[in-house]
Amino acid sequence: AIMGHKVLPSSQASTGYSATDIVEYVKILLMSRGGDLGMMIMMLCGFAAYMTHIGANDMVVKLASKPLQYINSPYLLMIAAYFVACLMSLAVSSATGLG
């Protein structure tokens, strides 16, 4: 808009004023991308709620913490727990998936 270029895509009609064209462009972006992001977040939250409902979260904690019970030193336990968490992060890429 500052250098004389159109802000809106060619398929959209200009509002006639460059400042409102920028607002219109943001509205178009939110309408096109915001819905996809919202659906993805709802799907991930639903998956996390279902996994909690069937007890999968508790089972993962039990399985992941079982080898850590054999370590008596708190410092070694902290290091081992860090590596277990790193391995779990390969399967669960975000905190949203953890419930």
Describe it.
- The structure is a single chain.
- With 99 residues, this protein is mainly α.
- The chain has two domains: 1-54; 55-99.
- The protein has three helices and no strands.
- It has helices at 18-54, 56-65, 74-91.
- The two termini are 43 Å apart.
- The mean pLDDT is 80.
List the helices and strands and how they pair.
Blueprint: H1 18-54, H2 56-65, H3 74-91
Short key terms for the protein model shown above:
99 residues, mainly alpha, 2 domains, 3 helices, membrane, transmembrane helix, Anaerobic C4-dicarboxylate transporter DcuC
How many domains is the backbone divided into? 2
Spatial gap, N to C terminus: 43 Å
Topology as H/E string? HHH
Low-confidence stretches: none
Number of strands: 0
Q: Class by helix and strand content?
A: mainly alpha
Structure at a glance:
The protein is an all-alpha fold.
